Amino acid sequence: MIPREKTAFVTGGSGFLGYEIIRQLLDAGHRVLALSRNGSLPGDLPKQHLEIIRGDLDDIALLEESMRGVSVVYHVAANVQMWTKKWAESEHANVTGTRNMAQSARKAGVDRFIFTSTGSTIGKPYPATSEIVTVDEESIYNFAPLQMVYPHTKWLAEQEVLRETENGLHAVITHPTAIFGPGDWKANVLPLFLATRTLAGMVAPNGIRTTCDVRDVATAHIVAAQRAPAGRRYILGGEWLSVHELFSRIAAAANGKPPRFSLPDAAVLGAARLMEFGAGFSGRPPKVSYEMALQSTFRARLSSRRAADELGYASRPVEQSIRDMASFYREQGWL
């Protein structure tokens, strides 16, 4: 019989990071209850200690009942759309959904609640400067006036988690950066690989990106459930490089062509404004929203020193992560 301390409730299992957390928990002999809107998960996860619960983040009674007797909750599910037209949808999923999860976890008496936020809620210099700066967990979120959909709704979700921490929930918040590696079942990162085979791949923004590997980030979540004190926040990053260099490495793995030019910030943001204008007529999300473009111009590297010191965290080289991601896409017939 599996002891209570090796039981977990996971959301977002059909996505990139959530799936990997489930895979690692099952490999370690845990019993996993996975919330799924359609009652299924992708891939070939072992079924012996996996129970899929059909439902969503709005079903508070189901959430609380499912969490009873569970030791750790990993709330990974999120709406990652970065378009202001989807604000209400994103806010409902990210803020209301997280409030429902955190309150249900506290009422169900779980031992630990691990909330996956994002590196985009870590404060950075804005407007972007030519100087590259290093930021950490003490860098206060400063993008509220910009009303960027994904960072702002995730930051609001963090406040919901911290509020429940004050009410007795042992919660920890993680801030993954740009995630690469195998298992991107929703193909969220695939457009970057495909773009290297088109004219769009000839140019790159002038920003800096901090990268990480999904496998190492998942491990850090599991370790955080074992070691981290309540209310602690952890940036989970790794190698940092220019967006131009990142696109070049993606191109090499995708058999595409590296970018030839780096665009000035004004050109990147102007092009995104035009795409959003066109999307307003078509009703389809722009390939590059203003929010995406703006974040691609930031010149800040995110430090994972705290996670390294307290969780033993380290992320493998980004070149390996990108190569493994390309292999996964090819196995699915997508690349």
Question: How are the SSEs placed, and which strands pair?
Answer:
Layout: E1 7-11, H1 16-27, E2 31-36, E3 50-54, H2 60-67, E4 72-75, H3 87-108, E5 112-116, E6 133-135, H4 149-166, E7 171-176, E8 178-180, H5 190-195, E9 203-204, E10 208-213, H6 214-227, E11 233-236, E12 240-242, H7 243-254, E13 261-262, H8 265-282, H9 290-295, E14 300-302, H10 305-311, H11 318-331
Parallel strand pairs: 1-2, 1-4, 2-3, 4-5, 5-7, 6-14, 7-11, 8-10, 9-13
Antiparallel strand pairs: 10-12
Helix pairs in contact: 1-6, 2-3, 3-4, 7-11
**Overall number of strands:** 14
At CATH level 3, the topology is Rossmann fold
SS field, number of helical segments = 11
Give start-end ranges of low-pLDDT stretches.
Answer: none
Characterize the largest beta sheet: strand count, sense, and whether it forms a barrel. Answer: 7 strands, parallel
Distance between the termini: 43 Å
Beta-strand content estimate? 15-25%
Strand order of the largest sheet: 3-2-1-4-5-7-11
Mean pLDDT: 94
CATH superfamily: NAD(P)-binding Rossmann-like Domain
Number of domains: 1
Structural class of the secondary elements? alpha/beta
Shape by Cα distribution? globular
CATH level 1 class label: Alpha Beta
The percent range for helix content is 40-55%
Rg to the nearest angstrom?
Answer: 19 Å
The sequence of SSEs as H and E is: EHEEHEHEEHEEHEEHEEHEHHEHH
